[in-house]
Q: What sequence folds into this?
C-alpha cells in the first residue's frame, strides 16, 4: 500500500506540473489570479507571478507541508514515541511500524487529494484566462473538497489507527498462560 500511495502522490505532482507547462505559453501577459465567492476574477497579476505563486508555490507547499513533512515526522518523531511505548511493553515493534506506515500512507493520500484539487483550481483559472470565461466552473466543489478533507482527515486517521490496533490485538495468538 505504501508503494501505491507514493506512486499516486508522485503522479499527482507530475500531472500538476504537466498541466502548468501546457498552459504556460497560452496565458496572456496579464492574468486573473484572485476570484470572488462566485468565481469571477477580481484580482490580476503578471503571467510570471501567476506561474510562480500558482504552480511553484502550490507544488512546493503541498509537497513539503502535506507530503514530506508528515513523512519526516512519521519517521523521526513518531518512531521515538512508538519505540518508547514498545520499550515499556505497551506497543510491539511490529505494531509500532504498522502505525508509522499507516500515518505515512494516509499523509501521502491526503497530499495527493490536495494536489489534485489544487490542479483542478489551476486548470479552471488557466482556462478562464485563456478562453476568457466569465467565472470559474466549479469553485464550490473544490472548496467543499478542501474543507471536507481538512476536517475529515484527522477523523479518518484516528478511526483507522483504532481499527489497526484492534485488528493487531485480536490477531495475536493465545498463549498457554492466557487460556
A:
Amino acid at each position: 500500500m505504501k508503494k501505491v500511495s507514493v506512486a499516486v502522490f508522485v503522479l499527482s505532482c507530475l500531472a500538476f506540473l504537466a498541466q502548468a507547462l501546457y498552459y504556460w505559453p497560452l496565458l496572456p501577459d496579464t492574468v486573473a489570479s484572485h476570484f470572488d465567492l462566485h468565481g469571477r476574477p477580481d484580482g490580476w497579476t503578471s503571467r510570471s507571478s501567476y506561474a510562480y505563486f500558482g504552480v511553484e508555490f502550490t507544488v512546493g507547499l503541498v509537497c513539503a507541508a502535506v507530503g514530506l513533512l508528515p513523512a519526516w515526522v512519521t519517521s523521526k518523531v513518531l518512531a521515538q514515541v512508538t519505540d518508547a511505548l514498545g520499550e515499556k511493553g505497551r506497543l510491539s515493534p511490529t505494531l509500532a511500524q504498522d502505525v508509522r506506515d499507516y500515518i505515512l500512507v494516509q499523509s501521502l493520500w491526503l497530499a495527493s487529494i490536495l494536489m489534485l484539487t489544487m490542479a483542478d483550481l489551476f486548470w479552471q483559472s488557466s482556462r478562464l484566462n485563456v478562453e476568457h470565461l466569465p467565472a470559474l466552473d466549479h469553485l464550490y466543489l473544490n472548496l467543499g473538497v478542501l474543507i471536507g478533507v481538512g476536517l475529515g482527515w484527522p477523523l479518518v486517521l484516528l478511526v483507522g489507527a483504532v481499527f489497526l490496533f484492534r485488528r493487531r490485538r485480536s490477531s495475536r495468538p493465545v498463549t498457554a498462560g492466557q487460556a
Summary: The CA atoms of residues 107 and 155 lie 13 Å apart.
